[in-house]
Amino acid sequence: MNFDQNRESPAESATSRDTWPVIDAATQVKLENQKAEDGYYEQSVTHRPASANKFSLLDIAREQVDIISERMYLLPNEYLEELKGRVRGMLEGNGGSQQRDEFLFLQRLVQSRSDLTAKTLVKAHRVQLEILVAINSGIQFFLHQSMNLSQTVLIEVFVYKRCRNIACQSQLPAENCHCEICTNRKGFCSLCMCVICNKFDFEVNTCRWIGCDSCAHWTHTDCAIRDKQIGTGPSRVNGLGSAEMQFRCRACNRTSELFGWVKDVFQQCAPTWDRETLLRELTVVSKIFRLSENTRARQLFWKSEELIEKLKAGVEETTACRIILTFLQELEMDSSKSSEAGNNGRMIPPQEACNRIAQVVQEAVQTMEIVADEKMRMLKKARQALETCDHELEDKAKKVAELKLERQQKRLQIDELESISRLKEAEADMFQLKADEARREADRLQRIALAKSGKSEEDYASSYLKQRLSEAEAEKQFLFEKIKLQDQGSRSSKSNDIGDTSQELYTKIQEILKSV
């Protein structure tokens, strides 16, 4: 197998993966024989009645290109994006079997039209062309905003002149291949599509694709196994009487040997595989050689099964890769030696036989040393892991003891705080009681003070009045005495003057008495 014939594909893009639905025979008969059901699909695809300005996906699929194109130029971009979104929803399959049937109806309608040619599609609106290409190919990437293919490329994809794989886009037929498949299959690309299922993906450097040594067409390994294109055939190296696993290409009907192809793939690609990829590739190898009766193929099958179990048990992928590469090299050497011995047809000298036995023993010892080193490394790693676990357990035990001690301390602190809280509550109750008593005592003293204050004012007023009265009496007595003395000393004065003076004195005395 010439492994150099690799498929050049960029990184995988989920939006350009080949997901187009294919109408099987049963569905074709159903769609052709049931006209009433076609009417049902026609109504369901319409989604809403088409007005004078707007239209449905069914209109795009069945109406003339130029008429729909003119109407599209009058519509807003939001409505055009809504139409593309409906087709994307159908391709994503979120609507179940009914939506799938609607899409198949649209696809059958588009593929049955003879007027959709490169000449008429030039007049199509950009969105109209994208929808038609997506319906015809079943690939939703043609509806994405990031898709920047020119209108010419889209037309070539629609009329099967260019590969529908966005990552390939080769002119068809690829590399001017004129085989029966490339000539008769519409849209088939021998560079990236499976000869059996017509699907493409982006798997490279893998045993999941088998390339033909003669015509360089590619086939999925699973498709080849399912279609019985992999089987036992006569060996090209050892001649008659020796059978080996071979792949028969459907394109050219020639066979390719599979053991050398697997060996080349593993030697060139296995060192770069991760654990998951290596496990998947070993599973593919196991599927290929499972039914083989050839000794070398059976040994490869057993070794693949053994390494699959080891990888699942935790063996590192580098170790498994080294083991399988060494095993493939040993099988190749044994096959070469057996072939040489069979072709020579002579007895091997004892010395040469001993040398060969020594070489085989040496290789076996080297393999055993590699395995022993790996076992020792794994044992050392296991011991280190065990010691790490022991240290972690000790640390956890210390942390648990510290947490218990801290918990006890916290509990003592809580009890102490609770006792302090109860003491403070008792003190608060005592102070509240004393405050109530002090308040009652203050009220009592206030009442006493008020009572004493009222009595003192009355006593003071009474004593003051008594004093004023005594003073008035004294002054009255003094005036009477004075008047009396004046009367006695001035009797010789004239009677008129005496009468006036006495009258004035009497008036003053009355005023004084009134004021008192």
Automatic annotation (TrEMBL):
PANTHER family, alphabetized: PROTEIN OBERON 2-LIKE, VERNALIZATION-INSENSITIVE PROTEIN 3
Classification via Pfam families: Oberon_cc, PHD_Oberon
InterPro entries: OBE1-like_PHD (IPR047578), OBERON (IPR004082), Oberon-like_PHD (IPR032881), Oberon_CC (IPR032535), Znf_PHD (IPR001965)
Domain Zinc finger PHD-type, chain residue ranges per copy: 193-253
GO biological process assignments: maintenance of root meristem identity; maintenance of shoot apical meristem identity; regulation of gene expression; root meristem specification
Record-given protein name: Zinc finger PHD-type domain-containing protein
Example of a GO MF term: zinc ion binding
Coiled-coil segments on the chain, per record: 379-448
Native source species: Anisodus acutangulus
Keyword rRNA processing carried by entry: no
SMART domains named among the record's database cross-references: PHD
Subcellular location: Nucleus
Record keywords: Coiled coil, Metal-binding, Nucleus, Zinc, Zinc-finger
GO CC annotations, alphabetized: nucleus
